[in-house]
Structures are given as C-alpha cells and as structure tokens.
Write a structure and sequence with these properties.
This protein has 176 residues and is α/β, with parallel strands linked by helices. It contains 8 helices and 5 strands.
Amino acid sequence: MKNIVLVGFMGTGKTTVGQILANRLNRQFIDVDSKIESNCGMPVSEIFKVQGESFFRQQEQQAIKDFLPQANAVVATGGGAVLSSENVANLKNHGLMICLAATADSIVSRIGTDGARPLLNVPNKDEAVAKLLQERASRYQVADYTVDTSILTPGEVAERIIGIMQAKGDVNELSV
C-alpha cells in the first residue's frame, strides 16, 4: 500500500492526525520534523536559531529521501516541506499526498504562544500566518486531496482521510 503523506501549514494537525491514522490503519508513523530533531540532536526551533533555515531545509530534504521509500506508513511533513520541488516529487512518488488546511484564525488559535514555531516568533502572529499562508497556497495545491481541519476534530479528519482512501480502493473495510 502507498504511504499516506500529510502536508500543510503548521498547526493544521499533521502530527496529531498522522498518529491517529497510523494507529487506526495499523501503519508506522513517521514525523519528518522529529527525525530531523533526532538526527541533529536539537529541536527544530534551535536548528533554525543555530544553523539557519537553509540548513534545516537541507536536513528536511534528506529525511524525506531517507524515510519515504518505506511503504505502508503515515508520514507527517513539516509545513515548509512543499517549498522544495524535489521534496514534492519524492512525496508524490511515494505516497498519496493529502494537504491539511485550516483558516488563519484557526491556526493562530491552535499555535497560541508556542515558541517552538521559529517562523512565528514575531510580534504579530496573525499577520505572519496570513502572509505565509498566502505565499504557500500554490505549493499546497500539489496535494492529491485537501481536508479542511478548521472545525473538525483530529479523529474526524482521520475518518475523512480513510474515506478518501476507501473511495480510491487503497483501504478496505477490514483494515480500518
């Protein structure tokens, strides 16, 4: 079976939904940011601060190359993974790409005062989120499907994704 690859802006639920999906479908869960943190020995926010975004994006590209050839996994990417055309090609090549989307207000509400979001360590989070969402909108459109998570629980989002996969014939009733 193909991997399920979750892409989307930060705070849309990729990690939470990915864990639920992996559990419900009895698949391995791979969080790309966690793999980068493990490889570098520091959190993403620290990598950005010490090494810079360019270094982080290189690590992200390598992690995607390393972990995507596995099949039958649920993979949660970082919000900026789709900024690289090489990442997009690898993600689409090795899985069904599903974008989790949400309104700017929902994202800001979910992220709150989380200081672990290096691109949002700015005085006006609302403005930063709106700007980044606008800049990345076309990048997220490369996904095979989009699920708006703004008013859904993570469990409801997982069920919608399972429904998409069942409609495609990628999951049968017995494996859910």
